[in-house]
Amino acid sequence: MAVKNKSIFISLTLILIAVLIYLGLSFYGKKQLISELPELPQLGEAEFALNESFSEAFQNVKNNTSAKNIGALGMVFHANNYFKEAEACYELAIAQDSKDWKWNYYLGCIKREQGNSEDAITHFKDVLKVNPKSHMTLYYLGESYQQLDSIKKAEQILKEISGFNKSQFAYSNTKRTAYFPLPLYARLQLSKLYTNNSKTDKGIEELKTLVEENINFGPAYRQLSNIYGQLGNEELRTYYSNRANDLNIYMSPVDTLVDALSLKSRSETYLLKQIDDAIRSSNSHWALELLNLGLESIPNSKYLISKGIKHYIDMNATNRALPLLEKHVRHFKDNYQEIIEVGVGLSSKGFKKETLNYFKIAEKINGTNASAKATLAGMYFEKLGMKDKAVSLINELLEKHPNSPEVKSAAIFLFLKTEDIAKAKLYLSKLEKQAPLYKDIHVFKGILAQREKKAEVAVKHYEKALKANPEKKFIINYLRTYYTKNQKWEKAIWLYKTVLENTPNDSDIQEAYGSLLLSCPNKELRNLELAKEFSERAFINKVYTLPTRLEAGRSLAIALFELNSHGKAIYYMNKTIDMAKRAGANKQYVFELEGILRDFQNIASASQ
Questions:
Q1: Residue 405 to residue 391: CA distance in whole angstroms
Q2: Same domain, 183 and 315
Q3: What are the pLDDT digits (tens) for 4-36?
Q4: Closest CA to 74 of 124, 38, 44, 128
Q5: Domain range holding 286?
């Protein structure tokens, strides 16, 4: 019995010793690991949120030195532009758990950002050993080979991605909308690869196929414009540049891991860049989340405050901008352009009290030129209905700057709007004597002729004014109505062409031009190819109104059908009908569209 008890005692003693040794080694190992972590940056009190973020991540590592916690600390360093420290953390995390591929991914991203393609390739390859289905890693690997001029390897990878099934990239539960699947970006990179390596024709062919299959892929149009610019073909450079500017041209592939970094950032510079990227890629809600994060963590950042106010206004969430206005004024009280931009934005949403405050601040800014203040006078009347204030300010400016054509021009506009015709004519006479070629003179003469019901005189002046004032919609609308009423179809075509030469991305004009070319009563002036092109451009334009997009879709479908592209015509008519129904469009209008669709289907079936 004693022997047995002695054996048990020895066994327990050995187990205890083993446990103590293990705990000792663990403690030593943990202590050693913590000592290898990079030091936290010395930050001031103003950077409280960033300090807190670093402290929390570091404390998590001290509590548990897992690869996950060490990597998370690296992400905090990474997201706040401490790249050397981030690299150290990622390397330690990999040493702890080489199967957790995210840390090699982030290391590769840092090297890629720094232009160190060789190291980026090493890390991206390590990712793919563990997770061969990481398509973004493969994309970045191909891009890195391209940077090193490893053409065959880059081409092989980009072709592989280009062949992936697009349905694989229908991301869900992501912060951003993936407007285009990764294979499209791979094809874009492939075209660049060809173009940069003396295969320009092949690059152009790839891009033209890409835009034919994906008509709203803006970056491909931009790349075509760049190529033709390099080739000295100004006509095609301009054409594809115009097509690109109809669309969102800054759109990168959705990278959920990089998005996760953004949420750990407390860096003004990093967040502003990510917010700009989100806005440019039409990810308004993702931009909003990043803005809220930035404003919470860096509440006194003048640039985040400015960005926040403007984005809240654009998102019809102006009430959320109001608490930021006081800080905004403190930061920008001497910046006329910034103050006016926000003031006009507020007025567009009906916040008159706040608009008035901004206009008053703008008026007091020293160094503002007379032309800007004259424009402000008009805004008092147009935006706030403050006739007396507007007239008082413009009279003051006329007295101080009697030789300024810009002030006289602003005064004439204001007097015309406030029905003071005598004063408008007085200053028009003075302006004409001083600067007979001033761009607005024919505008004013056209307005006065229009008031006096002298249509032909008004048209003569508006036609002369048009090239210098293509943005003035009232001129365009007057001429369009006059030409239509009097069946001057050649003039109507001239009108749209002239406006589009100066403002090529106006979807309303694109639609009107396409519609006229499709169904002009003078059949000799019809042009189905151009009708298709401009209707298509209006239909996919990033800036549009619903009626314009619906009419453009209708015209596009009809043009395609008349060009014997029956399948595409039916596709776009279905798309237009679906859009109209979802928007709650007039039932009679939807019924008419459905009638056209039935006709398409019957004719298409009969021709088979």
A1: 17
A2: no
A3: 566 665 666 656 555 444 434 344 455 677 888
A4: 38
A5: 265-349
